Amino acid sequence: MSRLSRIAEFGQQVWLDNLSRRLLESGRLERWLKEDAIAGVTSNPAIFHKAIAEDPLYRDDLARLRDREPDPERRFEALVLPDIRAACDLLRPRYDATGGDQGHVSFEVSPRLAQDAAGTLAAAERLWAAIDRPNAMIKIPATRACLPAIRDAIAAGLNVNVTLMFSPRHLDDVFAAYREGLAARHAAGKPVDHMRAVASVFLSRVDSLIDARLPEAAAHLRGRIAVASAKAAYARWQEVFGGEAFAALRAAGARPQRCLWASTGTKNPAYSDVMYVEELIGPDTVNTVPDATLAAFADHGEAAETLPRGLDQAREQLAELDALGIDLDAIGERLQREGLAAFDQSYDELLRLVD
């Protein structure tokens, strides 16, 4: 059994944060699924920009699409949605074998719609229909403007991966939107037992920003806040989805929205290259891992149930941060704005590439 596959023993799924035609056609993705228990795949504009720029397997299709499809955004979708479908098909046996709990593949709505709820919902429904696979997930950002789109997409029966979450406020807003969407769907007499959703909590960027703000007297908090906030988020998840607020929906067959740890590639070389994996392994969660971190954990990572441990210490660290006047919700808003700007830039570069 590989080091990566041992993570599944503790109830956590590992998803690959990468997708390309080369990964699919070379059999590399299939080997990861079989040998390392990789249970899902995520994608984003930066991932596809790199794939299209470097992978010659896209060249002929892109040349044909330039003649047939004048709109760059639709051209990009026509180029890569076959890869999303192929990945869904590859993961479908795992999806079926786990009753829909695993085997999902995520594709993102245009980041240009991050402040447009109606446009986001329309794009999510259009992409869901175009992919036409029950194990697809549509990524929607956790902006305040898009919370109604998240709620309505859930009510419409879509699997949703809510992305760009950085703070306790984001967590509570997204959990509420998920519950409201399920409640609306259940009230309309529609089934809720087949639906799955994740809440993607970003980690490494939190430490990068907070570390630079910490005084020397608080140096012991450097590299600790992202993990501490994730542990607190997991405790909040247990309260929300394990309690009375979710009881009626649970009785109707609804599943909790899982916490997904994102941005888990360590940015500071002084820290362990697997810290955002090793320290956050726990039941009913997902860790989406880039190739380099995947390889690092496969080489020297240690799997143990670490997520439920050290909650009191995590809360003490977060209290220390608050006493220093560093507000995690304010940090989260800044990081979300910066994340949206980076996604916009990646998307613009992607559309220029396919144009």
UniProtKB/TrEMBL annotation:
Cytoplasm as UniProt keyword: yes
PANTHER family xrefs: TRANSALDOLASE
InterPro entries, A to Z: Aldolase_TIM, TAL/FSA, Transaldolase_2, Transaldolase_AS
Gene Ontology MF: a single term: transaldolase activity
Pathway entry: Carbohydrate degradation; pentose phosphate pathway; D-glyceraldehyde 3-phosphate and beta-D-fructose 6-phosphate from D-ribose 5-phosphate and D-xylulose 5-phosphate (non-oxidative stage): step 2/3
Annotated catalysed reactions: D-sedoheptulose 7-phosphate + D-glyceraldehyde 3-phosphate = D-erythrose 4-phosphate + beta-D-fructose 6-phosphate
Predominant location category: cytoplasm
Gene Ontology CC: cytoplasm
Protein name: Transaldolase
Key words, A-Z: Cytoplasm, Pentose shunt, Schiff base, Transferase
Transmembrane segments: none
EC number of this enzyme: 2.2.1.2
HAMAP family given in the database record: Transaldolase_2 (MF_00493)
Gene name in the database record: tal
GO biological-process terms attached to the record: carbohydrate metabolic process; pentose-phosphate shunt
Places the protein is found: Cytoplasm
Family stated for the protein in its record: Belongs to the transaldolase family. Type 2 subfamily.
Organism of derivation: Halomonas stenophila
Function per UniProt: Transaldolase is important for the balance of metabolites in the pentose-phosphate pathway.
Catalytic residue positions: K139 (schiff-base intermediate with substrate)
